[in-house]
Amino acid sequence: MNADSTVKFKVERDVFADAVTWAAKNLPQRPVIPVLTGVLVTAESDGTVRFAFYDLDVSQRITVEADVETPGTFLVSGRLLADIARALPPQQVVLELNNGKVDISCGSSRFSLMTMPVEEYPDLPTIPDTTGVVSASTFQHAVSQVAVAASRDDTLPVLTSVRIEIEGDKVTLLATDRYRLAVRQFTWNPRTPDFSANALLRAKTLSEVAKSMSGDLEISVAESNGKEMLSFSSDGRVVTSLLIEGDYPKVRSLFPKESTITAVLQVGALREAVRRVSLVAERNTPIKFEFTDGSLVLRAGAGDDAQASEALPATIEGGDILTGFNPHYISEGLNAIDTPYVRFSLTDPKKPVVISGMQEPDGEVDSAYRYLLMPILRF
Q1: Is the dihedral of CA 264, 268, 270, 271 positive or negative?
Q2: Judging by beta carbons within 10 Å of its beta carbon (0-12, 13-18, 19+), is residue 337 exposed, middle or buried?
Q3: For the chain, which residues score pLDDT lower than 70?
Q4: pLDDT tens profile 79-131
Q5: Is 272 helix (H, G, I), strand (E, B) or coil?
Q6: What is the DSSP code (8-state) at residue 88?
Q7: What is the 8-class DSSP label of residue 320?
Q8: DSSP 8-state secondary structure symbol assigned to residue 247
Q9: CA atoms within 13 A on the CB side of 172
Q10: 57: how many CB neighbours lie within 10 A of its CB?
């Protein structure tokens, strides 16, 4: 890659600010290679400009329309360019490369930035052919339901990831931090009907990708320089990421084969009750869940400390049971339920509960999403 001695283009301020901000969002603070703090700007003769970032694991690139007078490429500090872009007045922006500096003008505002050596910037990964397509909104919702269960402990990189399983037109996402497990299945349109693949992608990366895409999302499973990667493309935005290496635990066996006790409640009312009762729950102490006599009683706090309790009507089958859950974990599980009702499937106070959604209190269980949570019995 070589920087052109002269580059010049004009672009609308909002388009420029949005593109640079997105491209520079995940720039590394202290990269092993200094040029990785830069955003690579490429103006094409076809009237488009691409802003790109690459940290050797994840790449982001966005292409926008512009009035390109002189095509070419330059590399500048990504964070500084993003800060400037957001601060510019709402007028057309002109960027021009001259003698190793990029001049930026917008209305009466003028900036001049030193460039970085383009030849030292790594080549961006090649965008592979599309493996399949799914609605970006469907993908975003599925990722948000599952990613909450991924571990935040970077010493166990496999558990910080989401496992993506593809079998024909079915995609399954799984995540666990050893205390809970979330599983979500949805359908997509594969280019090859019998395509099959498994992949591990960091939950943080996957969540950010899902939030930033719209329309139809094209997903690709491919290799880059001998390493497996995933690519996501939508509306001029492309993200590629190398996969996490390692063996994911065999988590499906955690789901009990049958449940002896079930309880169905209105999910909205339960969310609010959990939020209120958890206000007095001390750190690392559970909320008691007592399913009995057609109601669920929530309790938190003990002794001379603050205490709270709240009762909710519940349809219970199979008997009474007393268990407890981490307030944060149960809240995140309930927030992921997108149906009016939630069902708790239990077998024993010490064994995991499975939480799933229902459209009607006496209807079918929505098996597309399941959230398994380990109990805490330190009352």
Answers
A1: positive
A2: buried
A3: 1-5, 379
A4: 999 999 999 999 999 999 998 999 999 999 999 999 999 999 999 999 889 99
A5: helix
A6: S
A7: -
A8: P
A9: 15
A10: 16
> 253: which residues sit within 8 A by CB, 6+ positions away?
none
Here the tokens at position 258 are 């049958």
Cα(254)–Cα(267) distance, rounded to whole angstroms? 24
Helix (H) or strand (E) holding 83: helix 78-87
Give 93-140 as a DSSP string. Answer: EEEEEETTEEEEEETTEEEEEE-B-GGGSPPPPPPPPP-EEEEHHHHH
C-alpha–C-alpha distance, residues 68 and 89, integer Å: 21
Amino acid at site 14: D
Q: How large is the angle between the packed helices 327-336 and 267-277, nearest 10 degrees?
A: 160
Residue with tokens 């003990």: 302
Exposure class string for 77-88: b at 16+ Cβ within 10 A, else e: bbebbbebbeeb
Residue 165 bridge partners (DSSP):
172, 198
What are the helix (H) ranges across 240-340? 267-277, 327-336
DSSP 235: T
User: Residue 11 gets which letter from DSSP?
Assistant: E
Answer whether 353's CB lies under 8 Å from 313's CB: no
Length of the chain measured in residues: 379
Question: In whole angstroms, what is the distance from residue 197 CA to residue 221 CA?
Answer: 8
| Helix 203-212 / helix 136-147 crossing angle, nearest 10 deg | 150
The answer to whether the predicted template modeling score (pTM) of the entire model surpasses 0.85 is yes
The answer to whether the CB of 201 falls within 8 A of the CB of 162 is yes
